[in-house]
Amino acid sequence: MLTGLQIAVIGGDARQLEVIRKLTELDAKLSLIGFEQLDHAFSGAVKEKIDEVDFSCIDSIILPVPGAGPEGQIDTIFSNEKVTIDEEILKKTPSHCKIYTGINPPYLTNIASLANRELVQLFDRDDVAIYNSIPTVEGAIMMAIQHTDFTIHGSNISVLGLGRTGMSIARAFHALGAKVKVGARKSEHIARITEMGLTPFHLKDIQSAVVDSDICINTIPYPIVSAAVINKMPVHTLIIDLASKPGGTDFRYAEKRGVKALLAPGLPGIVAPKTAGRILANVLAQLITEDMRNQKGE
Length: 298
What we know:
Structural class: alpha/beta
Strand order of the largest sheet: 3-2-1-4-5-6
Distance between the termini: 14 Å
Strand content: 15-25%
Largest sheet: 6 strands, parallel
Helix content: 25-40%
Number of strands: 12
């Protein structure tokens, strides 16, 4: 139980509703910032504006999966008001206060460091990333079906990266009967791709690997699908970029060449917000409970 804990939930999408539900069930007291348009009421949760919150009493701050923008702005789909977070807000919190986010962009890392507050990046955890890859895969399959006029079965699919999401993507499209190639750099990843019964290629050879791609799915948050790479693809190729913004694709050149390229970060929050929210809620409840026990010296 989280009885006695005061938590600020700032902005976010439908995934945050599952987080709020879980934490209130555990008897935490919540300040909901950026939720004034939310019709549903949660016992133990109070809607507040950010300048109304007494941050000196806040034990934990929960931010949306994308964290904060380059000027501290927070995504708030349940509010029309601008919500921002800065160093001064964090300095008002108790020294034990932790900030939880999905990913931590440079701005957020910087203000947490200046305020000397611990920043916890949930998507750095293997369990969160692996569970989250399930709705990501389903979303990628949905996009592949919606934006092509051919079946996945028998198609040539190029997957870039064999991280936690890339592995799930490759396995699922292979199971649907696609001919899957996977690009990686590490020798152990090349070995794993081979063991999975897929076709490996080194990312330095990406230009030759994509010449017959019907669908190219990128999971690497680095400019990897360059103009030179896109130039080697068939014009009918569909690019689905799952990397965090701004993605790893030259979208300007893709449009110029007539290749359809879709940037799709945050798919779990779009295709399965309830499931994705429960994943985050369970991990957050576990981490915050551990923090509370540590503070009490249990």
